[in-house]
Amino acid sequence: MTNPTPNHPDETTPVLSLQDVGYAYTKGGKRVLDHVSHDFLPGRVHAITGPSGAGKTTLLSLISGLAVPTAGRVLHNGDDLAGKDRYAYRSRDIGVIFQSFNLLPGLTVAENIILSMDASGKRFERPKQDIARDLLAQVHLPAEYANERILHLSGGEQQRVAIARALSYDPPVIVADEPTGNLDIATQEDIMAIFRSLAHEQNRCVIIVTHSPEVAAASDEVFELAPLRRRKA
Description:
Strand content: 15-25%
Number of domains: 1
Number of helices: 7
Order of helices and strands: EEEHEEHEHHHEHEHE
Structural class: alpha/beta
Low-confidence stretches: 1-11, 227-233
Oligomer: single chain
Strand order of the largest sheet: 6-7-8-3-9
């Protein structure tokens, strides 16, 4: 299921490709994923959907370089991730937004963002504090939030900080795990507007794992690992 994106044609080179990917947690064990193939393009928001147990979290781990497939290949710009420095890949090429945010509560907002910049090993032409404040504007937070402690923020505000942190070293791929799961409708719509801006205006590849039909509908493409099941009353 694909929604057209007029400013970004479909005929582009995939930044990530799944080629007949399979995964099992134990050798010879039951596969969580089997024969999965898909391309992820820059300039688009991709939603990965499916019921619990379909392998969405496992697929996210493979795309993020946290695990390697037990069958098939995950390609990044045509290169097999299994043969690359996956720490460098996670620190520079892909920004991951975790479902639980994984922000450090003892640090300020700016310190959380700058920590990821430091971990990337990249050189920055501007002071990191200035970059952090600019990133807050991108995720619709006031500049004065830079000095706030994480524990003082709402769930929606922490989600925005997590997005800013993922953007801090300018990765071409952004991956988010259920980024709107505990948010109200208005905040969910604003978060999705941020993701669409990252894809359509900055030409990033945005990949979102979600159970939300609203998030799927707001995405450019939906990759369904298995048919969505209706929740029992």
